[in-house]
Every structure is written in C-alpha cells, then in structure tokens.
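As a warm-up, study this chain.
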Amino acid sequence: MTADCNKTQDAAHDLPDHSQPFLMDRKEKDVPVTPAGRLFLRQEMNTIIHCAIAGKHPLNIPAITSAVETSIIMHHPRFTSLLVTDRHGHEHWRKTHLNLDSHIIIKHDVIQVNDHEKAVNDYIADLSVSSPLDTAKPLWEMHLLMAHNCVVFRIHHALGDGVSLMSMLLSCCRKSNDPEMLPEIKNAAAVRRDSNLLRLVVKLMKVMFFTVVYVMELMMRSLWVKDKRTAVTGGAGVELWPRCLVTAKFRLDDMKIVKNVVANATINDVLFGVISSGLSKYLGIQSPEAPKEGTRLTGLAMINMRSEKGLQDVSDFKMNNKGTQWGNKFGTLLLPVYYHRNDSDPLQYVKRAKVMIDRKKLSLEGYFSYKVGYFVMSYLGSKLAGWLNYRICSNTTFTISNVIGPGEEVTIAGNPVEYIRVNTSSLPHAITIHMVSYAGRADLQILVAKDIIPDPQFLAKCFEDALLEMKEAALATIQPDKVS
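Now compare it with the structure written out below.
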C-alpha cells in the first residue's frame, strides 16, 4: 500500500493524467489553511476522522456514487481542494477538479466471518495508526466494505470539526419515510435569560471565578501537571501503538430515564457518569493495584463554539458559499472523572458529573482555549501550538466527544442505515471515546492502545453495565404509578 501511495504522489505532477485530479485555472487564488487546520496537519497531531455508516442491505456501488455526485461534497471548497505548501512552508488549499473514482475505494475481502460489526471495527482500528491520507488528492476517502455492508468515510480533521463533517455526511442521506427529504437537524433549545439582577451578579462572579480556576489549570496541564498513572494511562508516543476498536451500545431511553431523576441533568451528564462508573469498575477489577479512592482521570473534550448549537444545515451551502459556520470552531475543556470503589448509589456518579459540567458551562474555559489557540497558531506558529496540544494530550487520560445524530432512521443511497459511528485516529491517549446518537440508540466507540488495555470488550461492558445499574436505581426512585 505504501508503494502505491508513493507512486500516486509522484504521478500527481504528470498532468494531464485522468486518473488523478487536475488543477483548475490558477486565476482562482489559493486559500490559506486556517490556524486550527494547520494544527491538525502537524505530525504530532495529524488527525483523521472515521465515520462508519452501515447499511441493512448489500451496498449498491452505482447508487452510492450517484448519491455522492449529487451531494454538496462535489461543490464544497474543502472537499475539492488539494493541500499545497508554498516556498515559505505555509499550507494552502488549491482548487482542483474532483475525480470521484480516486476517492471511492472498494474492498471485497471478508475481514471477519459472521461478525460484521467486529470486522468494521478491526478495519478502522488498523486505519487509525497505519494509513495517512494521500496528499495528491483532496483529503478524504470513502471505503466501501462490500462483504460487511458498510461505508467508512475518512476525512482529515483539517477539513472541519465533528459538527461540520457530520452535517456534511448527512447531506448524502435521506429520510427513510421520505426519500426526497434530508434528515432533520434538531438543535439545542435556547437558554432562558434570567432577569433577576441579584442572580445575574452572583452568576457573573461565578463565571469570573471558575474561568480563572479552569484557565489556570488548562495552562498548567499544557506544561507539567499530569494525571497519576493508572492501568489506562497513555503518554507520549502511545499514538503509534497498535489499536483495537470496540463499541458500547446504549438505548437513549435508558439514558433519559437516568437524566429525568437527577434534577436538571442532561444526556452529557449521564454520559460522564457512565464513563466515571465504567472506568472505576474496570480499574477496580483489572488493575494489579487499584488506584486510591478519588483518583482523578482527566478527559479532554472539544466543544462547539458556534452561536448555533448542534448540527449545521448545509443544504444551501452551494448558494451561500461563505462558510461562516464551516471549519474547526471548537474550544477545549478538561473534564475530570474520579475513581470510586463500590459506590452504593450509582446515581452519585451522574450527580457528581453534573456539578462538574455545570461549573464548566459557567466558565469561559472553552472560549479562552479557542481564542488563545487561534492566537498561538496565527502569531507564534504551528510548532508551538502543536507542542502545547500534544502536551495536554500526554498529561490527560482520555479523549471524549458526543455528537447528536439523526433522531429517526435514514437511508444512504436508498439503503436503510443500521448505525452511524465515529472515531478519530490515534492520539497519545490509551483511550479515545466518541459517542453518536442515532434513531433512539447511542453507540460509544472506544479506541484503545491494546498493549495497555488488552481486554477492551470488558471495558465496553463496564460502561454498558454502569448505565443499566443507573437505570435500575432511577426506576427505584420513581413512584410505581408513574412507571409505564
């Protein structure tokens, strides 16, 4: 495969070769890569997003090709541009004619017999450490796993963040009950503004306090402060280690039952409660020496910094073409969970997570990290910014993200979608966790360094068991006449 890639890169300069994309009229100016995009192109932070969309029926190659040809992908400036570097070493996007055949890779081999989900996970795990994207073409691919009815999108993080890319991928899908309609995108409800002056003053004081505390912590994490070593700790160089990918499966109704018995809780609160409980279970059983009670395990999360939350409507992108909502627009949060041995009330994990997340929401940590990151990339260079981000990853324990997918079943190229799952390529963490909800379910993709976590299926079961225990505890608190 490496030899083929090198051959392809060499051939890219021998125009016109119709098997390769060719440059458009150079009257169109090159567009500088954004500061965030340059960060993800750094060798130490080189990040590719993998999105697996499994069909219920065998894949139809002509139908999939047609769906992509008629989608916004064919007109999107990031999906139709080459990455080029000028003589000063600055990266730019250069418009090119898109040759779709070079982006659709068809795999007929059977990876796993009678286990499609494991086959897809194994395939993506291998891609996560061994297969960079070819820079002789725009930085995205579609792998069609014919024997396993699955389309795997590979998209470089420099093209956009999870919100942008999920919105783009959904533009290739249609509603199951209306093949002409795009999936509906439900954004978060607007936050009510408090008009009470005293409460506003108190809230402002909290915002200032928590911002100072969390920003100072973020700065220290980027330099020297790190989590204590446990059986799930990664570190510098771990991004190169072999990976294994497994899935923990949740029902959104179960998460909502837990959410509804903890005052003002959200699905994210429940998710972090599950992570805290699941990691505690895993460490308590699998660790040769269990951590001390209350040991902190810090998660690194990226949050959407757009004014409009949730997935973005890209249906009019071709007409607008301003891209005001497109790209990498995220801040960074440190989200800690704690090891607790045999907590008698599973709901305590959710309550503790809610207190922590509520404080994070009050702070400007995400906004600060976004602005400072932009400043460092723009004025101090990508080398320093990449080093700081790599240090934060090396000093924390896991990566986590949560993207809301379609609430109803959708189709891709007329094929009903079984699941939508997302993960990224390897980071210095031994665990990266990405959740996507779809049609009443939520799948947690858990990518691990298998030399550190040799039994990831057990870790996934710990997360699943944690939610079931929380659900049982929640149902026990509900009046019998309210249970239906």
